[in-house]
Specification:
Elements (H helix, E strand, L loop, with lengths): L11 H16 L27 E9 L3 H8 L5 H14 L4 E11 L4 H17 L3 E9 L9 E12 L14 E6 L8 H7 L1 H6 L5 E2 L4 E2 H5 L7 H4 L8 E6 L4 H7 L7 E4 L8 H10 L3 H7 L4 E7 L4 H10 L4 E8 L1
Parallel strand pairs: 2-3
Antiparallel strand pairs: 1-4, 2-4, 5-10, 5-11, 6-7, 8-10, 9-11
Helix pairs in contact: 1-4, 3-4, 9-11
């Protein structure tokens, strides 16, 4: 018996249609720095001609974890691309870098055009918002590796920073202040635990019912888009008082701040300095999760941390609050 690729689970025509759809979304993000259309074996991007002579490229790759499973189960993929793009922007932002271009990776068990459209549209929307080009990526159909309805999503971002403006933590000193910027929920971390805690609600459909304590449904609370902090932080880039930044992802507040501290320094966090959002209190209560585990897994309402000189802390906080930002003095750096 003759067997073809489609019978093995891979539909080349469907994949071609999906790639054309992604290319159409990607074109909406192109700037004058993009030199070729999507479809080559690589993307071409001209570096900014008006940037400093000593420009450094900063790159990062990430995914959105098992938030994908929840979004896929609930049929709510309209923001999942934003989650990915925002997460990646925040990562390179901690280095002082601004985004240039982005590449995505989407792999399906069985490729579904509607899902491709939702994901690609969300990716493109986020890229346009932050003036970043989506210049390429990979779309794959891999039966047996993934279930028919399963897919995976990851992305690579490339940005730039002037060499003399790189933030790598080397400027942090004893006595510096930790300023926490509010998250709007779980962002893209801790979903394996959250899904386990709310497994019954997910299975029964109760996740979509209005919750009077949260003033929204659990689904809405859990699927809020990962915040992007670029527009909030950008005015402070290059200032002497900004010594380091941390994106609060897997590992929580302590572990992520630790990544940017020089040897001999540690973060002392005042856990009472802000009110944790209701979704975290609900998780801890429902799952009987210890405070230590909550701190290790979730951001607990702080999505990004600025490490600044003590003298500048009041001015920075005031400036942020005037712009409507929720900012908290959450601790300090000590020897």
């Amino acid at each position: 018996m003759m067997v073809d690729y489609r019978q093995a689970g891979v539909d080349i025509e469907r994949a071609s249609a999906a790639k054309q759809l992604i290319a159409a979304h990607a074109k909406t993000t192109f700037t004058s720095s993009v030199l070729r259309d999507v479809g080559h074996f690589g993307g071409f991007f001209r570096l900014p001609q008006d940037g400093p002579a000593k420009s450094v490229l900063v790159a990062s790759t990430d995914g959105v974890g098992t938030k994908l499973l929840l979004a896929n189960t609930l049929g709510r993929l309209e923001n999942i691309g934003e989650d990915l793009v925002h997460h990646c922007i925040n990562d390179i932002l901690t280095c002082g870098a601004l985004p240039l271009f982005f590449l995505d990776y989407i792999a399906f068990g069985k490729l579904e055009i509607a899902k491709v459209d939702a994901i690609a549209g969300s990716l493109a929307r986020a890229c346009r918002t932050y003036h970043m080009a989506l210049i390429g990526g990979e779309t794959a159909e891999m039966p047996d590796l993934y279930g028919d309805s399963d897919f995976d999503l990851a992305g690579t971002i490339v940005g730039w920073v002037s060499e003399d403006a790189i933030l790598d933590g080397s400027r942090v000193t004893d006595g510096d202040v930790l300023l926490g910027l509010a998250s709007n929920g779980l962002h893209t971390n801790g979903y394996s635990l959250a899904r386990k805690v709310f497994a019954a609600e997910i299975g029964s459909g109760e996740l979509s019912r209005h919750d009077p304590v949260l003033n929204e449904s659990l689904a809405d609370a859990l699927l809020k888009s990962h915040r992007c902090y670029l527009s909030v932080v950008k005015p402070f880039l290059g200032e002497d008082f900004l010594h380091a930044m941390a994106h609060i992802t897997g590992g929580g507040i302590i572990d992520n701040i630790r990544r940017v501290l020089p040897k001999g320094l540690r973060a002392e966090v005042d856990w009472q300095a802000w009110q944790q959002p209701q979704i975290f209190q609900r998780l801890a209560l429902k799952g009987t999760i210890s405070e230590g585990e909550m701190r290790r897994v979730f951001n607990l309402g702080i999505g990004f941390v600025l490490i600044v000189s003590e003298e500048a802390e009041t001015v920075i906080s005031s400036c942020l609050r005037q712009n409507g930002e929720q900012v908290y003095r959450i601790g300090q750096v000590i020897a």
